[in-house]
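From: lab user (bench 3)
To: helpdesk
Subject: output format question, protein + heme C

Hello, I'm new to running complex predictions and I'm not sure whether the block I got back is the full result or only part of it. Here's what I submitted:
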Amino acid sequence: MKFIFVLCCALLPICVHAQDRDFTLSAPPEITDTGFLPYVLPRFSLKHGARVSVIEMGGDVVIGPDGVPVFAGLGTVWHVSGADGAGPALFTKWLLSDIGKRTIDGFQPEGRALFSSQVVAEELAVEAIFEGDPVLGETLSLRHCGRCHVINETNRMKGMGQTPSFALMRTFDDWEDRFSTFYVLNPHPSFSQVEGITPPFRAHLPPAIVPVEISQDDLDAILAYAATIKPADLGEPLQSQ
Ligand code: HEC
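Helpdesk reply: Thanks, we reran it on our side. This is the complete output you should expect:
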């Protein structure tokens, strides 16, 4: 019996070891829908020889609002919490390591990073809770604001000359106030209406250009999206912003 036991250990050390580290993981649909996990997990597994199975709920490791902050994106900071097993501990450590961070930042469906490893900076930026849907917010920003403002890479060439880009405006300490009141800040009042907030355009003074007409929910979504935008690096030449 003893002999068999020793033999097993000799033949299967890696196997046994790896199984110790295997764990299950669950994440909310916002994250699983993006394809982030199939991008990140194999890279972690390759490095640490631990298998991670994604399950809908109640995983050993849970990505959500509680625990250690590990990455930011979609308008919030994501944390990991879960069993203190070898695998989960390694996973948390890996996410916070340089290679883990590069992996997080390297996930760029459609050429744009969806998540950022810069948790500390982002955590400050998204301190306020944005109730809107950032994904919808991106579409709405491009549709309504993208005529004049550069929103992101998608309309980089379409903004209007001197109009500040969203990334540039994200550098303002009070960006949130300005975005949430854009309709009273020039030049917007003459062509913008937020349903239930602004009075209708006066009949004798119709807007000279195609108006921006949005609802309060639309504005919440735009704010939630703006919160996910990385503020422009003002060290770079301004014309490239
Ligand atoms: C027709 C062009 C146009 C559209 C459409 C437009 N903006 Fe602007 N916006 C401007 C210009 C031009 C400025 C710069 C004003 C200045 O520098 O005084 C500006 C400035 C701003 C500012 C900074 C204002 C301040 O005083 O600090 C915010 C915030 C803003 N826009 C948000 C938005 C949002 C949100 C939308 C879409 C819902 C939007 N804008 C749509 C032209 C536009």
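A quick orientation on your result: The radius of gyration is 23 Å. Let us know if anything else is unclear.
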